[in-house]
Fold each of these.
Amino acid sequence: MVWAEGSARLLDYRPQGGEPLFVVPSLVNRAYILDLMAEHSMLRHLAAAGRRPLLLDWGFPEGAERSFSLADYVAGRLERALSSLGEPVDLLGYCMGGLMAVAAALRRPDRVRRLVLLASPWDFHAAGARAARRMAASLPLFEPVMGLHGALPVDALQALFAQLDPLAIAAKYRDFGRQDPASFRARLFVAVEDWLADGVPLAAPVARETIEGWYGRNAPAAGGWHLLGEPVRPERLGVPALVAIPGRDRIVPPGSAEALAGRIPGAAVLRPRAGHVGMVAGSSARRALWDPLLAWLAA
């Protein structure tokens, strides 16, 4: 650990050095999906290849953190963690972390050399506005519990996201039932399911900003997402960028991420044949993402 503040920690996967790759995961899931198993870890693979991955683990929001907004996370925790390193970094954002990375790169271009965005949404209505708006319309049902606890509970988050693809859960368990329980694929499935069940609540202000603003009003694509009064405009980015758009993503439909790639000047696009989680932690993740990412960074 090279930096800490509140519940957040910056974990160093190669203390002996290497080009720093600062990794920003989502706020709604545990960061260790990127270091899922000792023998199957994206960050350990990158470190073995000579990179210095630095993972920003947001932790479990407690106390005052439950009143945090996106500005508190991006302009506060994320920027202070970046500044603690004393040198520019390659900045990588995964899922929601990709939007946060875009905002940070726009605010602090002096701290970012290159930008990598993995399965990062932008147009939340790209696959149809009805499901996204239905999710946003469900949020008021959780206002009493958010008012009491200051956060959207894990179970509520899982229920909201299940609305996006309600048949997917049954399909993945049917597939698991056909696997050899002793196989690597079965052990990997269990590890991913344990990670999914080990969720974290989302600070109430962030829940309202993202679910109402992003899913309901499609604020990023509509030009209405602002951070501390400044619009977040990817077209203003001036660093080399790679956008990875998994073709089988049900959480972030390809069209949503393509909208982001189209707004970043000169962005390279990688299209892994994988899903949202499979791209970073699936059995084919090394071929689909890890090695192509290393090749892009080396180039």
Amino acid sequence: MASIDGLPPLRDVISTHGLAARKSLGQNFLLDLNLTQKIARAAGNLQDMTIVEVGPGPGGLTRALLANGVRKVIAIERDHRCLPALKQIADHYPGRLEIIEGDALNTDFSSLSEEKIKIVANLPYNIGTQLLVNWLLSEPWPPYFQSLTLMFQKEVAQRIVAPPGSSAYGRLGVLAGWRTRAHMVFDVPRQAFTPPPKITSSVVHLEPIEKPLKCSASVLAHVTKAAFGQRRKMLRQSLKGLGGEVLLTEMQIDPRRRAETLSIEEFAALANAVELKNARQP
């Protein structure tokens, strides 16, 4: 397809720099610039924004973001092989692309910019879920980001937007639903990637809720981990270490219920009850 910016086609970039995708890094390169443009547009108004991108690889999405008027992209890339290709993009867009070589899991995203950022990324499959959890549990809240526009495996995306009672509802659905408004934007077919993954991917857009239900992020994370860690069991068993049947009965929650039947409001109330219980203990 035609270039969006006068730079070489992505297949040529991959060939020139020997960028065979590595499974160990969760890499699947998206080469269709029509699709990278679509992902960039899904992030909303990009004019004069600072965007943080995780795992840019050869820079397909990076180029789409810059071509759509982003003032600056901060790209975090762990694979040193990709740096020359990204440097070529930086030279083409002077002063607009900052490249950070490093592990996104060890990056302090809140320190990357003095202004609010948008995070837009085709996340590496092997760290995508943990990165999202880290962002959702950010303190203080409202967070340092205006929105998250992220690509995941479709089954992960479905868990992020799943409502209570659905088969996909779990810890991700609670945390995302508690602090953000999340929706699936569109699917990306496996054939769009090099190499093609085994399953379809999906783009999800999340916007922070300024004042979510009041509860401790760390306690809610602990409660949901326990509740869904044994999701086939009744709550009285899965939450046994946090107060179990006594705590649930005090809250008028049937101890025989399973985690996927609880609303986000009930999980927030549970987190508050656990925190109060812990505070009373000597």
